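QA checklist item 7 of 12: single-chain prediction sanity check.
[x] sequence parsed
[x] length recorded as 727
[x] structure emitted
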Amino acid sequence: MTPLDSTTSCCWEWPIDLTQYDQSPWLSETEQCALVRWDNVRKARAKLPRLYRPLQDVTALRTKQSHLNGCSKAQTLILQEVQRTQQPYWAWSQQAWLELICRPSIHPSARLFITANAYLLCDFHLVHCTGSRFYLSALGRLVFGKELFDRECTRLHQALQNIGYGKLNLQQNFPSILAAVMLENRNPNLESFNVELLERARENYTMQARSIGKLSHGLAAIGVLPKPLRMRHYVSWKEKSSEGIAPEWVDFCHRWRETSTLEPRTRESNYSFILRAGLWLAQSHPDITSPTDWTVETCADFLAALNRLKVGEWQLHSFDYTGRSNLGVPLNANSKRSVLYAMRRFFRDIQHWDWVRLKFNPHYHLATPNSILRLCGPNPRAIDDPFWLKLVWASLNLEPNDKLSDIWYPFEMLRAISVIWTHAGLRQNEIVRLRLGCARIQSDPIMNDETGETIAPGTLCYLDVPAGKTFTAFTKPVSAIVRQFVTDWEAIRPEQSTLIDQKTGERVRFLFQYRGRTIGQNTLNETIIPMLCAKAGLPLEDSIGKITSHRGRASAVTALASVPQGMSLIELMRWSGHRNPKSTLYYIRTKPTRLAGAFAKADQMSHLIEVLIDHTAVVSGAAAKGEPYQYYDLGSSYCANPFWSTCPHRMACAGCDFNIPKDSAKGEALAAKAFLHRYLEEVPLTPDEQQIIKGDLQKLDIMLDKLKNIPTLDGRTPLQIHGNEQH
């Protein structure tokens, strides 16, 4: 930060002493006669000293020889206007001066001096209405002096260059904007500028609102302002229309917003919801204008109306739904839950603050119905694995020529943001609010207590994460490559002034702070991700939908949970910055590919049959002599047929000589053998058998009918074995 210059912090004095002039609003008889016969400036010197001398004093201030012609023309035009109006210029209104300055026939050089005379002699305040801004820098030098104007301009230029602005752009556009603010302030010293002045200047110079915002960044850098203004002048998103809502309800809503301690964004969204409830009241219950009028029946009506609500209904006039693709679509479950939370919070707060006495219990009578709760919950959707791996590769291999045409951030800054997004699993807000020096190298070896392995120094780095949505500030281990790219950015990062962290209220230096401000909240989604997708040759959407910053966080957490010997639930909770492991569970859902593999394995196991091998028969040689040694477990019996899997009767055993009932003496003796080992054998199924497994009894009857006359392994058919009985 540049220290304040004591030579410029003193008060500036008006260059003309107006008290020495006769400012009478009337012309004397002598002046009237002189004006009737007046035809040039030289004659006016002697005959109109009261009118001519102030004009000449302004000319003598800082006028170069080359400017005398324009100055003489300006004096002539002013005196001619005095002659026409029969009023001295001391009595002219602001509008009269403006009409003279803006007269099309006046030469630009004369217009400059007319404006200077109006400003210095007659307290002219409509400089911003005089048209083109390009002569304002000349007017500023004329009014405030070239030396002082250029010195203050240089101070501000240097401060802006130090925080990252280009020199050429500043030289081309900035002096006029600075002069406009100085003229608005009626004081050229930068130390006299304040937020109210800049806001007023933005009102007057709406087309230059962004440039005035840029000026505020320079003022913040030299310590004049506590923080810069927003770059664009806009209608605050907090201003919401109350048209069509009962005034008493609006008063309660506004009072609640001014008193609530919720986070600003949450408070504003809740304020919008309770205003919309006022619209519903005006349409359905116009007699209810105050929270004290609500009853249990009103709550029931509200729940029913909300459950049927569609996008675009209960619309505030300050919000334009034109062109929205989801207009008329039923409100989703999460939105309904948010509305009900806002209503419960509103009623609970105003009752706790003793503003009203309610006739119902908000916690009970405005509870979110189970039918809505079942459809709610976080839905972090991991990016498709092939897409995610390519995005990780792209972040590590970015080159300067990969920047998209409309990106003006430094390449090193963009690369550091990209690597942190793909490797650190942070929320977008946490990335924006990372502090300078947040990445620290792992300097000591780490011993793994479970495996005994040692992680060498420099393998990892520690990333300090600021307090976020659900957790206090904490430190997480990440890959050392993160620190490498962060260090590259810190090495060229321009020195920046401290800014206030809106989450914690601290004055800090942010890591991704450039030109006196942090990166925008949408930089990841609108700048980083499109750049990475272009580098990787990917579209902006995968099979699920648009690739977003939060889906990248979900992919990073899911990857750590899905690998063999991955992190435990508690470890992932701490690494992700969650307060509750339930939140982490949303991120580590089983991947569809992993679920498909598990299903395929289970489906294969469902087609296996247990086989008993008699190792005694194998070792003794009895098996080689033709003795049975392999038995298939059919549930209530065993089958000694070694080719059971090819037997046509395997789905419904016909009970041939190879069948050994388990409750028979032979079956019990077989089960009691000591060296009987059990194995699984895969059985291929025909289409008919697959239908039978799925429970198709008609297919089973048809198959049994087909097998009645097919011989078993011992040569007999099922009919011969069981006589004429029906299966």
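[x] summary fact logged: The radius of gyration is 42 Å.
[ ] second reviewer sign-off
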